[in-house]
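Progress report, Aim 2. The chain analyzed during this reporting quarter is listed below.
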Amino acid sequence: MAKLTQQLTALRESLRDADGSQSDSFSEVFSDFLAVTETSELLDVCKPFNGKTTRVMLEEILRKHANDPKLATPQAQMQQHPPSGLIHGMIAAGRYIGTFFYFPDEQQGIVAFGGLTPVMHYYRITATEVPPGTVLGRQGPGAEGQSN
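Predicted structure tokens for the chain:
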């Protein structure tokens, strides 16, 4: 169990330090994730997970990847490692299949999509909870609280 804890800590750190401007940065982080899953130690303690917020994030990322906002509702299989909070699994719709991991405490993760080519596509998940009633985007001229 100590080795798994060390691997998950290293995964968190590599995710935090990943830089999208480096072409191999996210693939290195995802390789760290795959190394964690190579033994049954992680899966032995994971529990099925059905978090709506996580599912919606994954669905939006898949639709963006597919460039199809009307893509059929994706299917997601998710598990959570309770001691670390790590959520991981897969998401699929049509010809698109992705594997992901996400740390809710840090509100960060990565989704990787592969295909019939050696090219992998990585998306960083960064979530921010917006308080209810918040209006996103710019408000037009004359809107309350806006100075001209």
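Helices lie at 2-17, 25-37, 40-45, 52-66. The first strand starts at residue 47 and ends at 48. These observations will guide the mutagenesis work planned for the next reporting period.
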